[in-house]
Amino acid sequence: MKTALITGASRGLGRALARELARDGWTLVIDARGAAALGAAAAEIRGVAAPGASITAIAGDVADAGHRAALAGAAAEAGGLDLLVNNASTLGTTPMPRLADQPVQDLPGVFATNVLAPLALIQAVLPGLRARRGAVLNISSDAAVEGYPAWGGYGMSKAALEQLSNVLAAEEPDVAVWWADPGEMNTGMLRAAGEDADAAPPPEEAAAAFRRLVAERPASGRYRVADLAGAR
Ligand SMILES: NC(=O)c1ccc[n+]([C@@H]2O[C@H](COP(=O)([O-])OP(=O)(O)OC[C@H]3O[C@@H](n4cnc5c(N)ncnc54)[C@H](OP(=O)(O)O)[C@@H]3O)[C@@H](O)[C@H]2O)c1
């Protein structure tokens, strides 16, 4: 039985990936800040899970050290992790400003959620991941590498997450480290960014591609859903 911790799994990509892995029999630890939505997601995921797969849902903010300790504790209680998915993320300031107008005081919170929380979670579970030859999947964005106007605050945090992943991959030969761009998805985040979310594919498509990534365990590196085999 394999165990994964997926952050931000009450909706969108995190929920879709949790559903995929639960169907495959993974034991899951999932979180989100909103307890009611997380509870509803956990109930739905339990309904599709393979027999024997258990789903532990813990409400909280990944930027909070006490919450991260609770997540790591639940992972240890489940016998240790095979996979950590750092998926929870914030856009930061909305409507999204150009850099000339970006309130600098908003950026520490963006980095706390999108970069520092993933690193702290990695540190908390790394000994177990090494021992089990596990994997880390850090969800990034094309905004990490493209110069999209008004995506600078979020984009610089995703660029930092990517370089964190790049160095981690070089340092940890026993752990597969993937940093991955899911492409545009029809989720609340894309809608909150003011984009036409209805025109984007559902998060289930990226989740299916990530399910294959996890199953095939390719070398550490940057992956785009658009390039993964069998993607649309
Ligand atoms: N949607 C896109 O087009 C797109 C494109 C490229 C990359 N991405 C990336 O894909 C990932 C998933 O995005 P999505 O579109 O699925 O987002 P989403 O629909 O907004 O879902 C985000 C999930 O994360 C949770 N979350 C947010 N902040 C959190 C925090 N501080 N602590 C714990 N949980 C938190 C949310 O629940 P609560 O709000 O209740 O906490 C929710 O469950 C993100 O890393 C995003 O940057 C998305």
TrEMBL record:
Domain of life, source organism: Bacteria
Q: Write down a Pfam family by its short name.
A: adh_short
Under InterPro entries, the record lists: NAD(P)-bd_dom_sf (IPR036291), Sc_DH/Rdtase_CS (IPR020904), SDR_fam (IPR002347)
What is this protein identified as? SDR family NAD(P)-dependent oxidoreductase
Gene3D superfamilies per UniProt: NAD(P)-binding Rossmann-like Domain (3.40.50.720)
Q: Which UniProt keywords apply?
A: Oxidoreductase
Using the record, list the residue span of the signal peptide; answer none if the entry has no such feature: none
Which PROSITE patterns does its entry note? ADH_SHORT (PS00061)
Q: Which family does it belong to?
A: Belongs to the short-chain dehydrogenases/reductases (SDR) family.
